[in-house]
Description:
Helix content is 24%, strand content 18%. 34% of the residues are buried.
Amino acid sequence: MTVEKPTGTLCPSSLAEPGAILIGIVGDDGCVAHIATEMTVEETFLERAKVHGPPERRFRFGAPCQQQLCSHWTGSECDLIGQLHFYASSEGLLSQEKALPHCAIRNRCRWWAQRGKEACATCIYVVTDAT
Length: 131
Ligand code: SF4
């Protein structure tokens, strides 16, 4: 089955659902390796990924920002990236010298639109399902 590519502003920490864009893989060090080429995931990929637990523990997905349907939406922006950036910064994880990672969704990313390079510096430490 073919799925349509998502449009509009994308959440870079979305659930694993058909039509989402695979944007990264969580490595053994807990950091996300970005996938620069846009790849829309289908049910077959997700079924295989779920065999090993929630895909959001090992992959990152981008899909349309849910805005009012999401608990992180303040009414005008996403508060999650600010919280995550504060945490990563206070843990000394961030280096401003790092080059921007290749990213399949940067020009449509909600976090990039709000915080630019700060968002990218934080994004590599984000695991959507960290349970
Ligand atoms: S408000 Fe933030 S966390 Fe919620 S869907 Fe949008 S970008 Fe993702």
